[in-house]
Design a protein that fits this description.
The chain contains 7 helices and 5 strands; from the N terminus they run αβαβαβαβαβαα. With about 170 residues, it is of the alpha/beta class. The chain has a single domain, classed as Rossmann fold (3-Layer(aba) Sandwich). The structure holds 4'-phosphopantetheine.
């Protein structure tokens, strides 16, 4: 096996919108960081769509939450309107790591994993999500927060505060 292929196998990409990062995301990225030499957290976005947080805000929240979790071998990158396989090629990663919260996630993720392998040979490694975060997604967290529900423990305190501020701005 060539040296490039060996190096690429030691680096993985954890892609997502991260709008915003949740406790479930941090858990999966931290576990990926124990399996690979380097994790590239790729914030993939469509500039035509306005998210709740800007991409620099998402990256800053990710950076702070991952530092709090003690994850050091991580790199944060943003990509607009890019195929994940092209991101993997650019950062020289042979593996995508994703967390699976259950069967519905698997049904959604499997065709994408197969398509990515079809397009470039990149492999997807699925990590079982921690059951304590099985119900946690960025969109559900935002909906609960929007209507005044308690999201303590589902996101970090800084994300909770940032979300509270953002929702107040848009109220
Ligand atoms: O956090 P999300 O929104 O569930 O992340 C989805 C994401 C960004 C990982 C997925 O939509 C993706 O890989 N987008 C990149 C575009 C692409 O490669 N599409 C083809 C996938 S087969």
């Amino acid at each position: 096996m060539s040296r490039d292929v060996v190096d690429a196998a030691r680096r993985c990409v954890c892609p997502g919108s991260y709008d915003p990062v949740t406790a479930g995301h941090v858990d999966v990225i931290a576990r990926a960081a124990r399996l690979y030499d380097e994790v590239v957290v790729a914030v993939l976005h469509n500039p035509a769509k306005t998210g709740t947080f800007t991409v620099p805000e998402r990256i800053e929240l990710l950076r702070a939450d991952l530092a709090d979790a003690g994850v050091e071998n991580v790199r944060l990158e943003a990509f607009a309107n890019r195929l994940l396989v092209d991101v993997c090629r650019d950062v020289e990663a042979a593996v995508v790591v994703k967390g699976l919260r259950g069967g519905t996630d698997f049904a959604y993720e499997l065709p994408m994993a197969l398509m990515n392998r079809h397009l470039s040979g990149v492999e997807t490694v699925f990590l079982p999500g921690d059951p304590q975060f099985e119900h946690v997604s960025s969109s559900l967290v935002k909906e609960v927060a929007r209507f005044g529900g308690d999201i303590t423990g589902l996101v970090s305190e800084r994300v909770r505060a940032a979300l509270t501020r953002r929702l107040a701005e848009h109220a």
